Amino acid sequence: MQVHQKISSGAQFFALCSLLLITLLFSILTSAQASAQEQLENIDTYIDGTIEAQMILEDIPAVTVSVVKDGELLFSKGYGLADIEEQEPVSAETSLFRIGSTSKLFTWTAVMQLHEKGQLDLDADVNQYLDFEIPATYEQPITLRHILSHTAGFEDGGLGYLIHYFPDKGPELADAMKMYIPTRVNPPGEVSSYSNYATALAGLIVQNVSGTQFNQYVEENIFAPLNMKYASFNEPLSDSMNEHMVKGYTREMGKFAEQPFEMINAFGPAGGASASADAMAKFMIAHLNNGEFNGNRILQKETAEQMHSLLFTADERFSGGMAHGFYVSDYNGHRVIGHGGDTMQFHTDLAIDKDQNLGIFVSYMSTVSNAARNNFVKQIYDHYFPQPLKQLKPPSDFAERADKYAGSYTFWRRNISSIEKALGIMGGTIDVVPTEDNTLMVTGLYHPRQFVEVDDNLFRQVDGDEQITFVSRSGDGIDTLYFESFPFMGMERTPTFETGLFKLLLPTFILLLFLQVVISWFYKRKHYKTLPSANRSLVYSALWMSLSHLVAVILLVGIVLGYQDALYSGIPFILKAALVLPIIAVLLTLFSIYTYVKRIKTGEASTLSHIYYSVVILAGVYMAVYYYYWNILGWNYY
């Protein structure tokens, strides 16, 4: 009896302790949830401070933000002026911002709607949905699954046709897709390379299969069910919608000057939408609810879950990758799907965290940079959902294998077949350099950052959470690099002729040599007139060759720097005219070779003179090859 009582008393004591422990844990969890909820409820103060600081530091005239939580609009606000002249403030409810490539999410949603109905097969050759044909460069056809994950294998393009300015208007979607088919540079499914063309092609497929114009399809099947009153793909906007459009501005002569409305109609499904923050909030809620908003469905639950699921990743150890159109990112241990977007005048980001039931949308009117939108969501996660960094120790034997990663890498997202390739001359590379600390220093994409090896070919940022992975596609050494935060853009080892030595340093030296030839003639012109005929011919041919190369390069660089982004709206006549100069320079180079050979036969020059002019002419030959490689010879616009 006494033993039984002791056991009963012990059991009661254990039960009481367990109850107290459970109560304590529940209290802690409830308190933490309440604290997190309280923080989110007070998010207006944090966002106000963040946006107002960004507007001052980065000279931004207008911003709009919306945040949704647990199926409700938690916060929305407009900042700055939608119309500076009229002093009209931005309204989160009604003010329309150009959302750039964030528009793609509507195109992907439309694709998944038709897939859900059995009208689109994600694994079928896209040619079966077109009235023209994507060339069969590779044995494997391009499918919508490749397009959704940006692995179709197209080169990039847009010079002269991507953006127009109202009232100018480019070709209609169907015509543009036929006119501007990009070269296929990789087998589908192998490399991620962001493609506006591929997305616009998906929009055309939606149009062809549904029998409804793309803009109208989105209006009827996405905007209307979600009551997105202030959203449109139309370009230009209707009069009633245009009243709510935030005007684009850039600084001219020290003050904001209004810019024309950007027209992306030829590639509309890839970036043509205009929307308010509150309208985008409804879209985010629908995706957080797996396709449902206020009783209306734009996707069935299973389809939405498929759309949000991972479709492509460069490395299975990455937390991020590409879902079916959405980027998959990791913010402090939280899985976030979303999409950014940029036009010349607007910069946008959208992020959806299904685990937290949280959605964030932000859009800036700015022609300065897109840095603000790149950082906004990350700043919110760092503030409300911080995650301590794990301290990593570099492997002591890393130096033994560091060199296999070292080198220069270039984004696959670039042009290869047209004159647009030449814009890559001024483009940077991502450089990977081993350090004495047994880490890799990576420069070019961000400020220099060090990465430490954490697994085979996998590295993590020493003082951050960015990861990179190296891949051997050919099986013969490392040839590909991926950043976890850029799942839609892989990089290859920079082709030799595109490294800094060959594309910038050597041409700079050559142009200085040509300049010396011209200056030398100016000071020695009287002496040159006394030379034998063959020598004189070589001197003058080398002079005109040098001068033609100098003028060609200086004028072309000046035009590109003068027009900059405006080149994406059209090829100016002055550029078309200037492209005759490289041809003239090449012809004069050939003539210089002729005069050089002719002089050799006469034997009238010294060895030193032969060496000098051989160097000058070889420089001319190099520049001819240079023009050819960068597609500057001729008028190869598209």
Automatic annotation (TrEMBL):
Residues 1-36 form the signal peptide. SUPFAM superfamilies: beta-lactamase/transpeptidase-like. InterPro entries: AmpC-like, Beta-lactam-related, Beta-lactam/transpept-like. Pfam families: Beta-lactamase. The chain crosses the membrane at residues 504-523, 543-561, 573-597, 609-629. Keywords: Membrane, Signal, Transmembrane, Transmembrane helix. Residues 48-365 form the Beta-lactamase-related domain. This is Beta-lactamase family protein.
